[in-house]
Amino acid sequence: MAGFTIVLYLALLAAAFFILIVRPQRRQMATRRALIASLEVGDEVITAGGIYGTILEISDTEMQIEVAPTVVLKMAREAVSARPHAANAGASESQGAGDGDRIGEDD
Fold first, then answer.
1. What is the DSSP string of 43-101?
2. Would you say the pTM of this structure is higher than 0.70?
3. Can you name the CATH fold of 40-95?
């Protein structure tokens, strides 16, 4: 009976691990793959290093983005982390959550 309890406990632990860790990570990876696949010339992007730019040329593995007039960077397509409008939407939703917690704010 004790052996069955241990096996049941381990099975529940494995199921919880899968539900809480593996599934959300798979969903996040699928979203990232969809973002990389949907990139087109003219899209505004944010790179993993935080550089904002507009795609000028794109191939299967590389792209060129313009970050300022006459400044073009060549980088891996996988370096894109987000689109600016998507990143700003998430930031504006979370604004206001901790307004009273600012350092140096007079009470």
1. -EEEETTS-EEEEEEE-SSEEEEEEETTEEEEEEGGGEEE-HHHHHHHHHHHTTTTGGG
2. no
3. SH3 type barrels. (2.30.30)
